[in-house]
Amino acid sequence: MEQLTIGIDLGTTNTLAAYMKQGKPTLLKFTGGILLPSVIYVNEANEILVGKKAKKQYIFYPSAGVKSSKTWMGQTDKKWLCRDREFSPVDVATEVLKEVKSTVLKKMRCDENTVVNAVITYPAYFHGNQIEDTKQAGINAGLNVLRLVPEPMAAAIFALKEFDQRKKILIVDLGGGTFDLSLMEADIANNSYRTIDLDGDPKLGGDDFDELIMNYFKDCILDETGVDLTSHKASGFGFDEYSTVMSKLINLAEEAKIELSSVEEHEIDEPTLFVYGGKDYDLNMSLSRDRFNHICQPLYERIFSRLDDFIARQKTERSLTLDDIGTIVLAGGSCEIPYIMEEIQKRFSCEIDTELDKETLVVNGACLVADNEEKGINLIHDVISHSLGVESYENNTDILSKIIEKGTEYPCQMTREYQTVYDNQEVVEIEIYEAGVDREHVREIRDEQGQEYHKHYGTITLTGIKKAKAGEARINVTFSYDVNRCLTITAEDVDTHAKKSLTVTKETVAKEQKAGGTQQPMDIVVLLDSSGSMYGPAIKEAKQACQYLFNELIDLKLHRIALINFENKPYLCSSLSHDAFALTKCLDKISADGGTNMIPAFKMARDILTDSTSNKVVIVVTDGDPWDEPESFAKRMIEAGVRIIAIGAGNSIKTKNLQAIASPDDYYKINNMQELKETFKTVVNKIMEAKA
Fold this sequence. Notes:
Blueprint: E1 3-9, E2 14-21, E3 24-27, E4 36-37, E5 39-42, E6 48-50, H1 52-60, E7 65-67, E8 80-82, E9 85-87, H2 89-107, E10 115-122, H3 128-140, E11 144-150, H4 151-160, E12 168-174, E13 179-187, E14 192-201, H5 206-225, H6 232-235, H7 239-259, E15 265-276, E16 279-288, H8 289-295, H9 297-318, E17 325-331, H10 338-347, E18 351-352, H11 361-374, E19 380-381, E20 388-394, E21 397-404, E22 412-419, E23 427-434, E24 455-463, E25 474-481, E26 487-493, E27 499-504, H12 506-516, E28 522-529, H13 537-553, E29 560-566, E30 570-577, H14 580-587, H15 599-609, E31 615-622, H16 631-639, E32 642-649, H17 655-661, E33 667-670, H18 676-689
Parallel strand pairs: 1-10, 10-11, 12-17, 14-19, 17-18, 28-29, 28-31, 31-32, 32-33
Antiparallel strand pairs: 1-2, 2-3, 2-4, 5-6, 5-7, 8-9, 12-13, 13-14, 15-16, 20-21, 20-23, 22-25, 23-24, 25-26, 26-27, 29-30
């Protein structure tokens, strides 16, 4: 049977593929070029469009399509309804990969029965279930998936052939949705490549730059026309019209980002962006590179804070200095941003590659891996991206007892012995965890409020263990990681040989997520009292607590928050948003004045949540009893499925009134707004634990 072998860079924004031709990777050309937009669209005939055609239609009717789905990979409950068809993140990736397979078969003039072998890349910081989803999408698309490779590893394999292999190479990969850092080296003796260390941010990429610029456009439009584009209700547009405007704006933002990589100033000219007051509104404005950099400063701070910490860790943990790094390789289209290249250059004296194509580096590396895999040659010595272990009890604290450390090469197998904790213990429950992102060095399983720092992967309940005094019965716990990063955990009593195993799959993790309720998307509306009694320190403390809520407590990649401040009447600061920066910016506009009328604020919250398909939550923060009587209206919202949490501060609050507007057991009385931060922590922990 005829076979083809390709490498695929399955990207958040665009997907690329390459095949070997005359011993070199050759980029596959799709309709419109080498970039296949990772976008799907369902047309009126119920046909699925993929790529450039889908992206073009998506602009005008975004509710019928899906883009940037890769950031949701691993989220089992995430679904998009496009017309009458439902898609999961795996479904979207499957359609994109089907298009890749179809295109390469046409390009190579092969029939449908040809076996297409593929190596597919993924962000270095993907969790196990995210990697499994990526592989499953390839299988569903009809590809023979040879293996999955971290994006920085693929980039390094291609780049290292061009540089001094005696020195380390640092890969800085900023794609559409993820940011990866990898320190690599060549294993010259074995003609392979090894990961020394890796880090990253799975929630940071080019899409985040686009969103900040889009929000800047919204602010400019509001100042010029008075049209508020924070939501379709605030704008006065219908949902479809509003969605089309948003789609146009995000495309204009992406275009501006790309253009400002090569020019100092970019002109935006979008005729008839929308119609208001019976007149066409044309978006005509210029955006300078300096202004772009100012807007995107919060993202730059996240990128370089991560990079600086990564380099510092190499010095302290591995005694590696900057002199040990021979080359910096930039991968991912977002590394084309001049400010990023300039700041990296300031930090390193070594060579920064500017010759290799940042956009095609990963796919070319994937193609080389695929070619060697087909020949039975393993180019890769990859490492575990997150430590793995079990819950243990030490010094009156539940801690993560690591069995496989981050940075361990896989495939691997590690065993650690544990003992029973009380006499004649007959059952041992072994709780399995993967170290959380940014929590590698946190030993505790939970914080003081019970919120888990680490990802729970499952539980093994072992029976039939030796009856003995505490500490005498011994249990060996073994973690085995195969070449495809499939994890199997086995617990065995040393004396009785009673044994039980668990293989961690996407379904395992999904079950745990559902049980914990932490992965259920929520739409949260915060109603912040800004009446006259909040003037001074109270409103300042409340705003700081809200900032803490937006930036630290809520995962805004999964959940959305809207903000309303109310006095005599309500003011919509922000409709439902994933953007912590934009939400924080809204706080600056809030001042304290007027009375305390809640009903109009509740009505506005109801309208915001009308179209929501997520779990609905309203959090009310107030320092006084309302002038109106919102109890009946709040009760109707609760009956309609909205969870209302009421937080009252100060001596003017009557507990009875607070209880009357809140869901059962969802009211909190605090002494002052200084306690609001901690109360928000308690509230978030509680709602995250709730089952959908």
